[in-house]
Amino acid sequence: MELNNIKRFYFIGIGGIGMSALARYFFALGYDVAGYDKTPSPLTDELIEEGIAVHFDDLGENLPEAYLNTEETLVVYTPAIPSAMGELVFTKKHHKVLKRSEVLGLITRTSKGLGVAGTHGKTTTSTMLAWVLSNSSLGCSAFLGGISSNFDSNVLINPDSELTVIEADEFDRSFLRLSPFASIITAMDPDHLDIYGTKEAFEEGFQEYANKHNENGFVVYKHSLPLRTESFHSVSYGIEAPTAQVNGFNLRVEHGHFYMDVDHLGEVQGRIELGLPGIHNAENAVAVIALCLQLGCTWDEIRSGLASFKGVKRRFEYHVRKEKLVYIDDYAHHPTEIAALVASVRLLYPDRRILGVFQPHLFSRTRDFLDGFIRELSKLDEVIMMPIYPAREEPIPGVTSDVLVERISCDVSLKGPQEVVEYLKGFKEGVVLTIGAGDIDRIVPKLHVELEKNSLG
Fold it and tell me: Which structural domain range is residue 328 located in?
């Protein structure tokens, strides 16, 4: 499909982080944009303030009149929308309708798409990549899966650059609809087994994605991934991985700042400062370094971009950072992500008591990785478990937060959102983490206020 005849875009699920980025992109290019979402949120409030019409009732066939013009309107939807939703049923019968990933695919065919794929690290790595490139002579546009603290947005538009950074999402095999010029692949730990079925099928999906890169492009991949690289140009990276072509090593904290050294094909660059601390963020930075060098960025551009990178909201995001009390919010929702988060916090605060508030995301993920969640959460000093956030799923018998509470080996309790806030009013010393991808973010502002008070008292 081409966009030549399209004058307006209608988004079903416009309040999602990826959908809102596309809505902002086409609105900035001068198209009429409107859409539906289930509930108001700070993101839909921002879209409305920017001039995009958003409503929260299922209008069925009674769309705004201009968007009933089927020749000039493209409807974009997210797979998170139920198939029986009235507007989706109506538009599928009468309009040109594409998934969000298919629209991103169109964009990658008209620019040099830089995909960031992987079970973990996509949002932080793609946002870091976009920031470094935007501060280089190359520039870029970007569609991000989170709100960048540098850009204060989830979209970056640069009509003068041929590069476009895009998160290559494995959910629903969406990344196979892209036509990337180059990519970073950060991780292939099995996930979304409700869609892929098996670990082998999940890994093969990533192999298919890697194989989409032609002879002019390249793939930057974590050195330990089980990828067959003979059919495309590849660059391996890692942390403390001497066999990788780009290796980060000597990670250290000096006076509250995070540094590492990098060996790129035998050339060592020392004392690279990372604006965002953490072992996993250092690994993401090595991937960004590898790709940016391949594109032609200078070391000075890379150093400057990494040092000034502020991160992504809900990815190792500091809310309180005082001498005795620290509060960090993180989107981690897979055991591997939780392991990286806890290890990084232990590195930064080795003598502090660490309390984690965790909301499991999806019944199926909790079931599939139950032992992993128990193992990694038990490494905290105390865990407050919240009920499972179901998202698109129905409950699975026997899969509850109580099962985790029964088996976690550190201090652990089960609390609802308001109970969490009340409990932490008495927390005055140590590190608090809120962890999860559901609606746990709704208690973050309240915890911020209470813990900020505690840090002053």
Answer: 317-456
User: What gap in Å lies between CA 346 and CA 343, rounded to an integer?
Assistant: 5
Report the alpha-carbon distance of residue 247 to residue 263 in Å, rounded: 5
Residue 2 lies in a domain: no
Residue 59 lies in a domain: yes
- Segment 372-428, tens digit of pLDDT: 999 999 999 999 999 999 987 899 999 999 999 999 999 999 999 999 999 999 899
List the structure tokens of 323: 């001498």
Which residue has tokens 């140009």? 233
How many folded domains does the chain comprise?
3
Distance separating the N- and C-terminal Cα atoms of the chain:
60
pLDDT digits (tens, 9 = 90+) for 59-100: 999 999 999 999 999 999 998 888 999 999 999 999 999 999
Please state the pTM of the whole predicted model: 0.79
Say yes or no: 266 and 167 in one domain.
yes
Amino acid at 454: N
Q: How far apart are CA 311 and CA 64, in angstroms?
A: 38
> What Å distances lie between residue 151 and 28, 132, 135, 288, 313, CA to CA?
15, 12, 12, 18, 11
The closest alpha carbon to 76, from 177, 180, 156, belongs to 177
Query: In this structure, are residues 171 and 334 in contact, taking their beta carbons and an 8 Å threshold?
Result: no
- 106 found inside a domain: no
Of 362, 344, 361, 360, the closest CA to residue 352 belongs to 344
Reported as a single tens digit per residue, the pLDDT across 305-322 is: 999 999 988 888 899 999
Report strand pairing: 73-77 vs 112-117.
Answer: unpaired
User: 132 and 237, same structural domain?
Assistant: yes
User: Which of the listed residues 72, 98, 124 is the one where a domain comes to its end?
Assistant: 98
- Note whether 383 and 358 are within 8 A (CB): yes
For residue 8, the cross-strand partners are 32, 73
On whether both 203 and 276 belong to a single domain, the answer is: yes
Kindly tell me the burial class for residue 145, based on how many C-beta atoms sit within 10 Å of its own C-beta (0-12, 13-18, 19 or more). buried
